Amino acid sequence: MQLSVIIVSYNSMELLENCLFSVQKAMLTIDGEIIIVDNNSKDGTKEQLPSKFPRVKFIFNNENLGFAKACNQGSKISSGDFILFLNSDTILPETCLTDCISFFKIHPDAGAVGVRMLDEKGKFLKESKRGLPSPSASFYKLFGLTAIFPRSKTIAKYYQGHLPENENNPVDVLSGAFMMIKRMLFEKVNGFDESFFMYGEDIDLSLRINQLGYKNYYLGRISITHLKGGSTTYNYRYAKDFYGAMDLFVKKHYKGKPTIYRLFLQTGIGFRKMLAILTLPFR
Range of 69's domain? Predict the structure, then answer.
């Protein structure tokens, strides 16, 4: 089997249904499977979608296991040579998946690939390609300098701003909203780190792929629609999970760095978390 598409869902039935229609069209010429891991949705997903998509495999959990753990759960029953981890609030064009698989075949150094993501208005989403959250990259982003110099290789490195959005290039970090990876490599790195409940797991996996000598490729010539936040509720839990994941990443990967290095990052993360919580009433 060529490809396994794994989608984690949580209270996003309508988005998931539209996503599945697009994925099925994109897989018409591919030997593959679609696996949905539902984290205890209460919106009718379990009651309504299996009958509409009889060829899709569904796993229904009795609790919200988080994104990383649910992805690993789906991967354990999958069979494809490649695994695509896909958000439920995405829409794929028909040639997207075949183009990604073709790229792997002519780039043996590719460990994982991501694509150019656009929002519902066609605006480019900068998180399609990212650099690692180093102190300097975090500083420039935190204080708004990245927005002022969006094409700078140094100042805009958090979003790899110097790389054209319509070209293919190796990058540090791919988005977990669309990440296709070789099965053998995913198994070699032991999958997603389940310490990350939600958010940050894609940064962690991207780094571990690089550490094994493989490249993460951003494919700017392939575009998908990502209804950013369509399956996300912005509340205190979101801020806690998101910035908690960033703090976990620093503790895991920068533990050998000087104390001041880690303190700078953790102080910035704490500041952004506080700011996010304070602005919640205005969203």
Answer: 3-124+165-232
